[in-house]
Specification:
The protein is an alpha/beta fold and 206 residues long. The chain has a single domain, classed as Vaccinia Virus protein VP39 (Rossmann fold, 3-Layer(aba) Sandwich), CATH 3.40.50. The chain is built from 7 helices and 8 strands, in the order H-E-H-E-H-E-E-H-E-H-H-E-H-E-E. Bound molecules: S-adenosylmethionine (SAM). The site of S-adenosylmethionine (SAM) has 21 residues, from helix 1 and strand 2. The site of S-adenosylmethionine has 21 residues, from helix 1 and strand 2.
């Protein structure tokens, strides 16, 4: 049910053309030749930036659950004739790539949509090579959101109902195998009367 709401929202969002999230790619410090995954890539703006940074010897996958978003992303990739990019239609809690195949994972404003965030971070850990890193921007809270908000598919699709607390989030990162987390930036704001935190952070697979 929630996945359908999300796909519906982002399909409509595409028609309204007002999707925009803050970038975090500069924190990833990408190098030529690296293999990168952009989780919840949307229209692929950062996927293509990553492809520019890793160059022809590198490769970038953009993964998203909404077909319309990936259509747009592929159109943009075709316009710039990039050959080192591919787009995967899949859910980020079950990623069709091989173990230890990536140098870096990027995700911008997308993991909050997924109910099983532990599964997402286990997938990130599985896919990264030793020494590989991720940079994620995501939404969280200090206090738990009320159950009726968490269970409201529209609130989850609107980038706030799926938020968990900072404490829960940090426990998931540790349980998935990431122990040294560095926070790059944090912003607080109010959405539908709830205080939300947008945090950009880095982790490494040791
Ligand atoms: C707020 S948009 C962010 C898009 C892009 N990262 C950006 O910064 O512009 C969230 C994206 O996550 C995708 N998404 C939501 N749930 C997902 C899931 N379970 N697996 C993969 N992508 C998902 C949505 O389809 C949407 O394109």
């Amino acid at each position: 049910m929630t996945a359908l709401e999300i796909i519906k929202r982002y399909t409509e969002e595409d028609e309204n053309s007002n999707l925009s999230c803050g970038g975090n790619i500069m924190f990833l410090d990408l190098h030529p030749g690296e293999k990168v995954l952009d989780l919840g890539c949307g229209r692929g703006a950062e996927t293509l930036q990553a492809a520019t940074l890793v160059g022809g010897d590198g490769f970038v996958w953009g993964l998203d659950i909404t077909p319309k978003m990936l259509e747009r992303a592929q159109e943009h990739a075709d316009q710039v004739l990039f050959k080192n990019v591919d787009f995967l239609l899949a859910s980020m809690d079950k990623i069709p790539l091989k173990d230890a195949s990536l140098d870096a994972v990027l995700s911008n404003c997308a993991i909050n949509h997924v109910q099983d965030k532990m599964a997402v971070y286990r997938e990130i850990h599985r896919l990264l090579k030793t020494g590989g890193r991720f940079v994620v921007s995501d939404i969280m809270t200090d206090a738990p959101l009320p159950p009726e908000v968490k269970q409201d598919p529209e609130a989850v699709a609107a980038c706030f109902g799926g938020a968990i607390t900072i404490q829960e989030y940090e426990e998931i990162l540790v349980a998935a195998g990431f122990d040294r987390i560095e926070i790059f930036k944090e912003r607080r704001y109010v959405k539908n009367g709830y205080e939300m935190i947008s945090r950009t952070f880095h982790g490494e697979k040791s």
